[in-house]
Design brief:
The structure holds 2 protein chains of 2 kinds.
Chain A lengths: L2 H15 L20 H15 L16 H14 L1
Helix pairs in contact in A: 1-3
Chain B lengths: L1 E6 L1 H14 L2 E7 L9 H8 L4 E3 L8 H8 L3 E5 L7 H4 L6 E5 L7 E2 L2 H7 L4 E8 L9 E8 L6 H25 L16 E2 L15 H10 L13 E4 L2 E14 L7 E5 L2 E5 L3 E10 L2 E4 H4 L15
Parallel strand pairs in B: 1-2, 1-4, 2-3, 4-5, 6-9
Antiparallel strand pairs in B: 5-7, 7-8, 10-11, 11-14, 12-13, 13-14, 14-15
Helix pairs in contact in B: 1-2, 1-6, 5-7
Classes of the chains: A mainly alpha, B alpha/beta.
Chain lengths: ~80, ~300
């Protein structure tokens, strides 16, 4: 399993366990489907920062990174490289 | 220390998590029944941690004070709840009631302070924790944390900044209350500087193209929670009798002499629109409920109605 796939699994776990959101697939559009609302978005930011020891810079925040779990995994991986 | 948390929204969820991590006894979480799905998101989290939940509207009932005293509550913490707390209830907790407000006080009292600050072109914002008094957002300030508003910030990003800046303040408050309740600062507000903001948008939610470009863009940013719902909606305007809402816009700094509201040649996906003093680049618009790139619907040479008073 690639690192990105492993990250996707961890992120799906955050959605399931912390946000109580069942994500059907890693390419599900979280925004268009309404699975992720503004409250969930903020909660997810905090969760990602805690879980992956990140400090997500808001000036670099692009909501496209939050559109799918696959996008999120790529975003987290990129952030980890920065840290 | 025994706490009661009255909370809503994302900041309320984060406050609940912070209180839980603090190790203090959370007697109950008070929240409304509104929210996505079957219940309040704050309530969902409270249920996950097996904390009692009470209806938030109880805070309006003076009789609820007796319940707080009977439970031996030391402090009540209010985070983004919109219920007015009865003075008898405010007086019931042993060490008082505190509110986390997503704006600097006394300058940004009231509702939607993040959007109002962006609309007014502020370059800094703050989160304030203050002791609650009978009049909304007027009690003495315990802690305040300021941060810059950048030109690229939107209502969404500033709201996230507020939540991030507020959590350490909650931790600081809880630590001080537990160690030395008298040590919590009580800085009186200079109420001469107080401004109270209503919940709805300014200008009846309509753009005045004859305003300076800075004001137009600030209004758009103040409404920008994209991709999420904005409490103010998006600023509206009219083109050829059709209502168009402006979702994303940025300044160009390029002076323009065209009549306000004139649409110039589109550049890429965006279109340039004339304001009082400069061209503004409009990136995304909402038409008939659909969000589209501006260049798809804004044709060069057309002109928006300049139908509202300019904002200076």
């Amino acid at each position: 399993m690639s690192e990105l796939k492993a990250l996707e699994g961890e992120i799906v776990g955050i959605f399931r366990d912390s946000l109580k959101i069942a994500v059907p697939a890693s390419d599900t559009d979280l925004l268009a489907t309404g699975l992720l609302d503004s409250l969930g978005f903020v909660d997810l930011l905090f969760r990602l920062e805690q879980r992956f020891a990140l400090q997500i810079a808001l000036e670099s925040l692009d909501t496209e990174n939050f559109r799918t779990v696959a996008n999120l995994a790529a975003f987290v991986a990129a952030q980890q490289l920065i840290v | 220390m025994k706490l009661v948390l009255v909370a809503e929204e994302a900041a309320g969820v984060q406050a609940l998590r912070a209180v839980t991590r603090s190790g203090h006894e959370l007697v109950a979480v008070m929240t409304s029944g509104e929210g996505k799905g079957t219940g309040s998101p704050v309530r969902d989290v409270a249920m996950q941690i097996a904390c009692a939940t009470w209806p938030a509207e109880w805070v309006r009932d003076p009789g609820f004070a007796a319940r707080l005293r009977a439970e031996g509550v030391d402090a009540l913490l209010n985070v983004h709840s919109l219920f007015l707390v009865h003075p008898a209830v405010l007086a019931a907790p042993r060490w008082g009631a505190y509110n986390m407000h997503p704006g600097p006080l006394p300058e940004y009292a009231g509702l939607n302070p993040v959007s109002w600050a962006l609309y007014r072109g502020e370059t800094t914002h703050a989160v304030t924790i203050h002791r609650m008094g009978p009049k909304v957002d007027t009690g003495p300030i315990a802690y305040q944390s300021s941060f810059p508003i950048e030109t690229h910030d939107t209502a969404l990003t500033v709201s996230v900044k507020c939540a991030k800046a507020g959590l350490p303040l909650i931790s600081q408050l809880l630590t001080t209350l537990a160690d030395d309740p008298a040590g919590v600062p009580e800085i009186p507000q200079d109420l001469c500087r107080r401004r109270y903001y209503r919940p709805g948008p300014p200008e009846a939610g309509r753009i005045g193209w004859s305003s300076p470009g800075r004001a137009v863009v600030n209004f758009v940013r103040a409404c920008d929670y994209v991709p999420f719902r904005s409490p103010w909606g998006h600023p509206r305007t009219v083109l050829d009798g059709r209502e168009v809402a402006i979702v994303k816009a940025t300044r160009t700094g390029e002076p323009c002499g065209a009549p306000a509201g004139t649409i110039a040649e589109a550049t890429g996906r965006a279109a340039l629109v004339a304001t009082d003093d400069e061209w503004v680049r409009v990136h995304r618009v909402l038409v008939d409920g659909h969000m589209v790139e501006a260049s798809e619907v804004l044709a060069a040479g057309r002109r928006f109605d300049a139908d509202t008073m300019p904002v200076r």
